[in-house]
Amino acid sequence: MPDAPQPGGMSPVTTLSAEQAALADATLARLNFDLPPDRIAQTGAEPRDASRLMVVGQTVTHHIFRDLPKLLRPGDLLVFNESRVIPARVMARKPVDAAGHGGGQVEVLLLREEDLPDLSAEHGPHLWSAYLKPARRAGNELWLGDGEHRQRARVVGQLEDGARILAFDRDIKPHLDDIGRLPLPPYIDPGSSDDTWRERYQTVYARAPGSVAAPTAGLHFTPDLLAALDAAGVERTTVTLHVGAGTFKPVTGPVAEHTMHAERYSVTPGAAAAINRARASGRRVIAVGTTTVRTLESAWDGTQVRAGEGDTRIFITPGTPVNVPDLLITNLHLPGSTLLLLVTAFAGEDRIRAAYDAALHGEYRFYSLGDAMLLTNVRGTQAAGSGTR
Question: What residues in the chain have per-residue pLDDT under 50?
């Protein structure tokens, strides 16, 4: 099977220097920690904004997430990632031949639609990258789902990371709600039903379908909390970054060898204008989640945030300046992860070490459904929590 061409038009890619990679390796080694399995949240707080919130600046203080309006200032700008998780995990079967052989089951994790002109010319426009399990025995043809929503896919290429390119006979997106399940993180027990997760593993403001993992910092917000922030004079805008499966991929070797998967992002003219106005007037920009940070930094042209869309593989590690957001709302991340590197680049290693020590000793819950932190950008002087009215 020939390799598929890699998607074109990437912007931007961060290639680490040897010095940056060595610093990242050393940082992950110093920040390594053991996490008891019972500290990995299996369910979210109810209500969502009852989760804990650690404010990390010159000191560490402890709050409930619904306290956020008291911790921010009128005129602060919250930037949300409005991507919506799609039911991207689909069970498929291999075709059965005339002798009755075949029919083996294959798990398909759809990653994203791909724009690959050479393959589209030969196989049609409905191309997706996907991880298959088992990949080597998947064959060249799969049938996803059952009944009227049954979809045929042909395996027509392979990407560098082992993902296969699937060519569908028709647009599969309208059928995913019927044949797919939400792709929960591997450390969460999905149970036998997808019904609860279809609501709980989405932010309340999710609009644009395309992610295979939730932008989890946003899971703490409720309609009532958003209304309270509005009433407090906190402004908000949205961007989009469709979170890929690479968000689950730990750094298993030298950081220099870690591959950042491409993710599609977009910033509307209205969002770019709101962010640039806030910065120009000295108001704080607050990124809700690491995916929002990656979007803003990908859209940064050196002086302002540019409207537009593209693919990003940006890799933010210690020593990399984070230019746009002043504050970051984020969950507690895995040791040995690119997300831990990002928050260390944002807030500084000493503060991240203090925050994680406090979380480990203070019964905070970790990962996608766990508790949150409010971090101050190490470059800034406008500390988190310093804006109480």
Answer: 1-10, 381-389
Structure-token pair, residue 303? 């002086």
Question: Mind giving me the DSSP string for 333-363?
Answer: PPTT-HHHHHHHHHH-HHHHHHHHHHHHHTT
- Structural tokens at position 244: 């890929």
Q: Which two tokens stand for residue 15?
A: 């290639």
Please name every residue paired with 209 in a beta bridge, in sequence order, or none if there are none: 84
Token pair belonging to 325:
């957001």
Q: Which residues share a beta bridge with 153?
A: 142, 168
**What pLDDT is recorded for position 185?**
86
Q: What is the pTM of this model?
A: 0.92
Dihedrals φ, ψ of 250, to 5°?
-75, 165
pLDDT at site 10: 44
DSSP secondary structure code for residue 131 in this structure: E
DSSP assigned state of 6: P
- Residues 127-130: contacts with CB under 8 Å, at least 24 apart: 127/156, 127/165, 127/166, 127/167, 127/168, 128/153, 128/165, 128/166, 128/168, 128/172, 129/159, 129/163, 129/164, 129/165, 129/166, 130/163, 130/164, 130/165, 130/166
Torsion, Cα 12 211 216 238, to 10 degrees, reads 70
The DSSP element (H or E) to which 95 belongs, if any, is: none
Cα torsion through 366, 214, 329, 365, rounded to 10: -10
Q: Which residues of 225-242 are buried (b: 16+ CB within 10 A; e: fewer)?
A: bbebbeebebbbbbbbbb
Q: Tell me if 113 sits within 8 A of 244, measured CB to CB.
A: no
CB 156 within 8 A of CB 165: yes
